[in-house]
Amino acid sequence: MNKENVLDIASAIKYYLCPSATPQAQSFGLDKYEGICPQDSFAVLSNEGWLTEKPPIRLDHYAVILCVKGSCTRRVGHFEFAVAPGTLHVVSPRHTSAYHQASDDLLLYIVLFRKDFMTNSFMKEAILEQLIDLDPYMPPCFHLQENFRHMKDIFLRMDREYRSANAFRVQMMKLQVVELLYEINRICEGGALQSQKYLSRQYQLVYRFRKMVEDDFLTIRTVQEYADRLHVTAKYLGEVVRNETGQSPLQLIHHQLYLEAQYLLSSTPYTIKEIADKLGFTTASHFSRFFKQYSGNNPSEFKINSCRCLTA
């Protein structure tokens, strides 16, 4: 039985919600302090009242997020990028994601939806997948520049419809999601045409390496094995990866392992020994030393603290 926890919309909202005695005012979307229906397949909300320094999670739905003010760093899959005013980013289902280094004034407008919200009697699944399947070579974060006001207007119109009791409100919100996705594709295509970085052989080698690490880090741990699969020398792979990322290939492998450990400790009922086995460590003590080197806490302390956040 798979004990890993992939969060639905209601669980994801509760996961980030700050357990404060004084609820924060909500200027956009739903009131997160009111009842959230577990069956909901769509939500419009802000990050107001959310904690952003939380362990990584995986979602069963899409998230489209507009940064209105403030900043943070976001990791989605193997990409890590800065979130700043005028940027929009997308999180796809089952990608491990996390926020960190969030500023106190961070304000995000967020649209969450499951695939079935769009495909049930509205849009063919193949068309939706074409719209939401973004360029894999590019980080799923877009600098809107002159498009920011237009994208913000779509979010605001969605917010007004979401809060209303008007007839056909669900159908209108589906149309607004389609508009949003087409605008994202337009921006994505324009960015790919303008950027030479994503066309370089070095960047594509690093992308392929990081994608392999994301997919195979549980079974492949050495730089040489990745280099062999990529048909380059380990020395060349190390030079290119360091030039592109500022880190060595081994550091990226270990960081992916650490992120998975965080996810398993915070989101599953596995024991420390089970997690150590799952991650390929020979002993639980070896795993504990590895984890403490990155987090400063041993896995048991981290698990207790993060699981307390999940049930708060």
UniProtKB/TrEMBL annotation:
Coiled coil ranges: none
Transcription regulation keyword on record: yes
Residues annotated as domain HTH araC/xylS-type: 207-305
Alphabetized UniProt keyword annotations: DNA-binding, Transcription, Transcription regulation
PROSITE patterns: HTH_ARAC_FAMILY_2
An annotated Gene Ontology molecular function: DNA-binding transcription factor activity
Protein name per its UniProtKB record: Helix-turn-helix transcriptional regulator
Organism: Chitinophaga agrisoli
Organism taxonomic ancestry: Bacteria, Pseudomonadati, Bacteroidota, Chitinophagia, Chitinophagales
